[in-house]
Specification:
Elements: H1 4-19, E1 30-40, E2 46-55, H2 57-67, H3 77-91, E3 98-102, E4 105-106, E5 115-120, E6 123-130, E7 140-146, E8 153-156, E9 163-165, E10 173-178, H4 182-188, H5 195-199, E11 213-218
Parallel strand pairs: 1-8, 1-9
Antiparallel strand pairs: 1-2, 2-6, 3-4, 3-7, 5-6, 7-11, 10-11
Helix pairs in contact: 1-2
Length: 220
């Protein structure tokens, strides 16, 4: 069992991420394996994006220490609801780490109706689903990405199959997973990446250039 001092430090680290109160540096401190499912309507328009994030053991343990109010070393329903509420409110200003573009133009997404937190096999799991603010037909190139503009959290899609269209690709569409090389991304955007970006990425919103993206190219 950790000492009280250690527990306090870890709990503070958890709250720093969830509340996004600390300036970020240019390398992640928290890691999550993710899955993204693109859900379509019958007319080949975007219905929703379905997200699942499974956080690393260390961060998950900090969340357990902070939100386990009855100290039974697990998170019951009421404690998980509090985790959900905290994460939901904290991510609102960052559009829930979502990036959607159509032919290079950014598409706005509605906030999710709810966010669900689970704690399974010593890992925190976050699930939510969001919809576009306006109808979005799949024509041309449409990209879907997940990234933390503060650089504090690394959202990792371990396998390409973890970014997919629910039910399979519609006719006339092809897909590819784009994983930018960090060195190439920096070189291509050198003129935009000032010292201010590296000291506080949240002020520039340029961290999206490093985001893994699921690109759909559709005709017709």
């Amino acid at each position: 069992m950790p000492t009280n001092a250690t527990a306090a430090i870890l709990a503070t680290a958890a709250l720093s991420l969830l509340a996004s109160t600390q300036p970020a540096r240019v390398h992640p401190h928290v890691f999550a394996e993710a899955r993204l499912d693109v859900v379509l309507n019958p007319d080949r328009s975007l219905k929703s994006l379905r997200h699942l994030w499974r956080f690393d053991d260390l961060f998950s343990s900090t969340v357990l220490l902070e939100f386990d109010k009855n100290a039974d070393l697990k998170l019951d329903d009421s404690e998980l609801q509090e985790v959900s509420k905290t994460v939901f409110e904290s991510l609102a200003e960052y559009d829930y780490f979502q990036l959607v573009t159509a032919d290079g133009k950014e598409i706005s997404m509605k906030p999710p109706a709810q966010l669900i937190a689970n704690y399974e096999q010593d890992q925190l799991i976050i699930l939510f689903e969001s919809e576009p603010k306006k109808p979005l037909k799949l024509t041309g190139k449409v990209d879907f990405g997940v990234y933390d503009p503060t650089f504090y959290t690394a959202i990792d899609f371990v396998e390409d199959k973890n970014m997919a269209v629910d039910g399979g690709l519609p006719s006339g569409c092809s897909s590819t997973v784009i994983r930018p090389d960090p060195d190439e991304a920096i070189a291509q955007n050198q003129s935009k990446l000032t010292d201010a970006f590296f000291s506080d990425p949240t002020g520039t919103d340029l961290s999206k250039i490093f985001a893994t993206r699921f690109e759909l190219t559709c005709t017709g």
